[in-house]
Amino acid sequence: MRVLRLEFLEFLRDKRNLLAFSAGVDSSALYFLLRECGISFDIAIVDYGIRKQSRLEVDRAKTLCFWDKRQCFVKVKEPILKDFEHTARKVRYAFFEEIIQAQNYHNLILAHQLNDAFEWFLMQFCKGSSLLKMQGCYKRQGIVDYRVVRPLLKTSRQEILEYLNKRKIFYFEDFSNLDSKFLRNAFRKKFSNPLLEDFKDGIAFSLEQISGEVVSVELFRIPTLEPFCVFRNGGLEQIDRACKMCGALLSRAQKEMLAKELQNNSFSVVLQHKVSVEKLENRIFIAPFKTSLKAIPKVFKEKYRNLRIPKRFRGFLEVAREKGKLEAVLSIIKDI
């Protein structure tokens, strides 16, 4: 068995970290790997109340934290009756963000591994999706007030199981993952697991190359401000995705219009009276459309001009300035 190596430890050292924990295979391994690497962290777990063992999983989390002197945050959710996967994900991430904001964590650590990334890729590929959507699990994501880190994305589930078994680490098995009536489980059994057994290194390399070549879209969120996006060298697909995240579903006519505008060095449009989309040189700016009767003070107007910020986005910056968040937004833009 090869020694498992975690990615992105440099982002975790000397930081406040929160591990999303389930007591299953992946998060149990990640718990002990992080501990071995001397990474400080607390954990958060959600009990959805749909399996008999869920209370035991929470007890396992509490026990680990008791002995290791960590904080354990628990959310008990009433049973979800429909669209479980989508609803559970929303509940889970809302809970994590609530903790992060209240406790000032720098990083959210997720236990997604190579099998997860490859399963998603295959499912989207077979459905007929774009490279951006096939990319699925990002290795790390900056969301302004915290970072999402996935240290196991180059590690297969088989390697994780070998690690757990060799060290005799207890974990819970989610037997719903074996039910082939769920599409993802069927893909796992028929396609992704057999391919990973024979071509793990090549698959890991290819997924990493795709991740590096595709322009990703991140939704930046700062407390008290509406979300916004700024990215470099993006195309229509990235703009469409960013607009969706900002609450605007683009029509076919709007997409065709944007495709033409993207051929220009710069443009500025307002979509559905609520989202501004602007291009200046190689950067795309997408934000809630804001109008103001107040003139922008000359000193700030000059500052925005020097930073190459388009005119409509400046309205959003003025809202940020009034709320004391201007420098937080500008620090993001300067790095893009």
Automatic annotation (TrEMBL):
EC number: 6.3.4.19
InterPro entries named in the record: Rossmann-like_a/b/a_fold, TilS/TtcA_N, tRNA_Ile_lys_synt, tRNA_Ile_lys_synt_N
Chain ranges of the tRNA(Ile)-lysidine/2-thiocytidine synthase N-terminal domain: 17-189
Keyword match Cytoplasm: yes
Reactions mediated catalytically: cytidine(34) in tRNA(Ile2) + L-lysine + ATP = lysidine(34) in tRNA(Ile2) + AMP + diphosphate + H(+)
Compartments in which it is found: Cytoplasm
Transmembrane segments: none
Top EC class, one word: ligase
SUPFAM superfamilies linked: Adenine nucleotide alpha hydrolases-like (SSF52402)
Matches recorded under Gene3D superfamilies: HUPs
One protein family per Pfam: ATP_bind_3
Keyword Transmembrane helix: no
GO molecular function per UniProt: ATP binding; tRNA(Ile)-lysidine synthase activity
Keywords: ATP-binding, Cytoplasm, Ligase, Nucleotide-binding, tRNA processing
Primary residence: cytoplasm
Known function: Ligates lysine onto the cytidine present at position 34 of the AUA codon-specific tRNA(Ile) that contains the anticodon CAU, in an ATP-dependent manner. Cytidine is converted to lysidine, thus changing the amino acid specificity of the tRNA from methionine to isoleucine.
Protein name: tRNA(Ile)-lysidine synthase
UniProt source species: Helicobacter winghamensis
Gene that this sequence comes from: tilS
